[in-house]
Automatic annotation (TrEMBL), chain A:
UniProt-listed SUPFAM superfamilies: MetI-like (SSF161098)
Compositionally biased tracts (Low complexity): 8-24
Lineage: Bacteria, Bacillati, Actinomycetota, Actinomycetes, Kitasatosporales
Annotated TM spans: 34-55, 103-127, 134-152, 158-176, 216-238, 258-279
Domain ABC transmembrane type-1: 95-284
Family: Belongs to the binding-protein-dependent transport system permease family.
The keyword Transferase appears for this protein: no
InterPro entries registered for this protein in UniProt: BP-dependent_transpt_permease, MetI-like, MetI-like_sf
Region ranges (Disordered): 1-28
Record PANTHER family: OLIGOPEPTIDE TRANSPORT SYSTEM PERMEASE PROTEIN APPC, PEPTIDE ABC TRANSPORTER PERMEASE PROTEIN
Species of provenance: Streptomyces chisholmiae
Membrane disposition: Multi-pass membrane protein
Record's keyword terms, sorted: Cell membrane, Membrane, Transmembrane, Transmembrane helix, Transport
Protein name (database record): ABC transporter permease
Keyword Transport: yes
Automatic annotation (TrEMBL), chain B:
Keywords of the record: Cell membrane, Membrane, Transmembrane, Transmembrane helix, Transport
Transmembrane segments: 12-30, 103-125, 146-165, 177-196, 236-257, 277-296
PANTHER family: DIPEPTIDE TRANSPORT SYSTEM PERMEASE PROTEIN DPPB-RELATED
Major localisation: membrane
Protein name: ABC transporter permease
Membrane topology qualifier: Multi-pass membrane protein
ABC transmembrane type-1 domain location: 99-300
Lineage, top ranks: Bacteria, Bacillati, Actinomycetota, Actinomycetes, Kitasatosporales
Family named by the database record: Belongs to the binding-protein-dependent transport system permease family.
Pfam families referenced in this protein's UniProt entry, alphabetically: BPD_transp_1, BPD_transp_1_N
InterPro entries: BPD_transp_1_N (IPR045621), MetI-like (IPR000515), MetI-like_sf (IPR035906)
């Protein structure tokens, strides 16, 4: 199992250096232009999610067949689709669902995964063995396939997609938190608390948890980018909300049939997804290095 | 060695059994069983409650769950993965006829991806020019940020529609294989490049590399005999994970390029909520995972003589 374990830890988080624990932050480095740009992109995405009306005055759902498949212009920044709807407006209004679902997914993965990891590492013994075998099984199925299977069982809709993507990424959170819990469990202050008669659940919640959760928090930011991709893939395949609700993946798949004549309907929204993921990953990497000079 | 293999084999069987159990729990116990999903579909709504009850009994969905589980497990051991709710044909034969298409696609994607990744990683590690190096290193994060479907659509738009160089979709022939393989290869390239590059940097910082340089080893020799060999271990391990993900990526890629294969089969099965087929695909992916990991573990000592195979812990 040795090599499999290193893989699981090493590749689930591409580019993740050994995470810095809390309390080990040397002087913070000022974010470079790349990181600032990434923050700007994310700020725009969040603005679109919460106040789409500020970014566009067009309606995302009203048809205008006379103006269908118009190329990008001053009036329609991303052009119009086969029903004459403004593609930019659809992307902006789709940001809410397309970002909320990954957020729910990461929340589930973080909550369930860290809990499994904490208990597994802290309690040890048979509990640890059983839980980690369960995690091994989750790792044996590619996460996209796993989330597809869960969506098939739960039924379609963006909430189900979010739950499915979340469950499919539980394993990496469990692994990383278990490793931290094992490390923290051996620290003198945990031993001290135990000797002083603090009950086990309290030791776990008050002493182990705060010191073991750091890497999982960093992982959440990284997984958020992955979750955006997974959710958009499931939405692209048609497992999200029914039309005409705009979702990023679905906007792209609707534009697919018009690729030869109207590339903008599919490709400009794709670019928005990529930019958002890229920005998330950039910020995540910056947080991962603790924003420190190293 | 025999003991090691036996222990790994047992472990593999346990993972497969676990995956089967997980899939059973997910697909049979969660909110409703396969048959009632099928019956809730359009067209079949006309069945009377009696007919529904008869169908349920016939398919054994009224039996206790444990009995259903054991029956399915028994079928699995006899090579029976159940039948598709949609087409009525055995899941095993559906997987069997789709597998060659996906195996070709994944094989070529792996070849493209690993080759490109190794090239990118080594050029980035050895390039003298700082700008070249930095630019190359921005490529992998860029590569994993693009959704697979977007990559496929861009390739179709540019290569198939504008240049008219390759077909935009279809299953047969090598020409139809190239664009999907490139699409599927991109995440492989990104991962392999990152891991290999990191490995090279670590090796090149080692003392024995300085020794080799002091003894007059040339750049090429240094790269091939020392750095590459020692950096290939982690890369191999990373590739193993990527191989598993190819099956997931194939779902999107085959849909975008209208190819037949396991991925397309999966997408259609999920759309129709054809749960036995979905379960079959999940099992297949776990089998691939287990076999690939076993192969990698067996190959590891060949690359790195410091590693010996001992009985796996636990």
């Amino acid at each position: 199992m040795t090599t499999t374990e290193t893989v699981a830890a090493g590749v689930a988080l591409p580019g993740a250096a050994p995470a810095t624990g809390p309390g080990r932050h040397p002087a913070r480095r000022r974010p470079g232009p790349g990181v600032l740009l990434a923050f700007a992109v994310l700020a725009l995405a969040v603005l679109a999610a919460f106040a789409p009306g500020l970014l566009t005055t067009h309606s995302p759902t009203s048809d205008d067949v006379l103006n269908k498949l118009q190329p990008p212009s001053g009036a329609h920044w991303f052009g119009t689709d086969q029903l004459g709807r403004d593609v930019f407006a659809r992307v902006v209004h789709g940001a809410g669902l397309s970002l909320r679902a990954p957020l729910i997914a990461v929340g589930i993965a973080f909550g369930v995964g860290s809990l499994i990891g904490l208990v597994s590492g802290f309690v040890g013994g048979l509990v640890d063995t059983v839980l980690m075998r369960l995690v091994d099984i989750l790792l044996a199925v590619p996460s996209l396939l796993l989330s597809l299977a869960i969506v098939a069982a739960l039924g379609f809709g963006i909430t189900h997609v979010a739950i499915a993507v979340g469950i499919a990424s539980v394993a990496s959170f469990a692994r990383i938190t278990r490793a931290e819990a094992l490390r923290v469990r051996a620290e003198p202050f945990v031993e001290a608390a135990t000797v002083l008669g603090v009950r086990r659940p309290a030791v776990l919640a008050r002493h182990v948890l705060p010191h073991a959760i750091g890497p999982a928090l960093v992982l959440s930011t990284l997984e958020f980018g992955t979750a955006i991709l997974s959710v958009s893939a499931l939405s692209f395949l048609g497992y999200g909300e029914p039309p005409p609700t705009p979702e990023w993946g679905k906007i792209v798949s609707e534009g697919r049939d018009y690729l030869a004549t109207a590339w903008w309907v599919a490709l400009l929204p794709s670019l928005v997804i990529a930019a958002t993921v890229l920005a998330t990953n950039r910020v995540s990497r910056w947080l991962d290095t603790g924003g420190t000079t190293r | 060695m025999a003991k090691y293999l036996a222990s790994r084999g047992l472990q593999a069987v346990l993972v497969l059994l676990g995956t089967f159990t997980l899939a059973f729990v997910l697909l049979s116990v969660l909110p409703s069983d396969a048959l009632s999903i099928k019956l809730s579909g359009a067209g079949e709504a006309a069945l009377s409650p009696d007919e529904v009850a008869a169908l349920r009994a016939e398919h054994g969905y009224d039996d206790p769950l444990l009995q259903q589980y054991l029956r399915q497990l028994g079928g699995l051991l006899g090579g029976d993965l159940g039948t598709s709710l949609h087409t009525g044909s055995p899941v095993l034969s559906m997987l069997g006829s789709a597998l060659p298409h996906t195996a070709q696609l994944a094989g070529l994607a792996l070849l493209f991806g690993v080759t490109a990744g190794l090239l990118l990683g080594s050029v980035a590690a050895h390039a003298g020019n700082r700008w070249v190096r930095e630019t190359l290193l921005t490529l992998p994060p860029l590569g994993i940020s693009f959704p697979t479907f977007a990559v496929g659509l861009v390739l179709i738009q540019v290569v198939a529609f504008q240049w008219r160089a390759l077909p935009s979709g279809g299953t047969d022939g090598f020409q139809n294989l190239v664009l999907p393989a490139i699409t599927l290869a991109l995440p492989v390239t990104a991962t392999v490049a990152q891991v290999f590059h990191r490995g090279l940097r670590e090796v090149l910082a080692q003392g024995y590399v300085d020794t080799a340089v002091a003894k007059g080893a040339g750049r090429l020799r240094l790269h091939l005999a020392h750095a590459t060999r020692n950096a290939s271990g982690p890369t191999l391990t990373a590739t193993a994970v990527v191989v598993g993900n190819l099956l997931g990526g194939a779902v999107v890629t085959e849909t975008v390029f209208s190819r037949e294969g396991i991925g397309r089969l999966t997408a259609d099965a999920v759309t129709r909520q054809d749960l036995p087929v979905v379960q079959g695909v999940v099992l297949l992916s776990a089998l691939v995972f287990v076999v690939v990991n076993l192969l990698v573990d067996l190959a590891y000592p060949l690359l790195d003589r410091r590693v010996t195979l001992t009985e796996a812990p636990r």
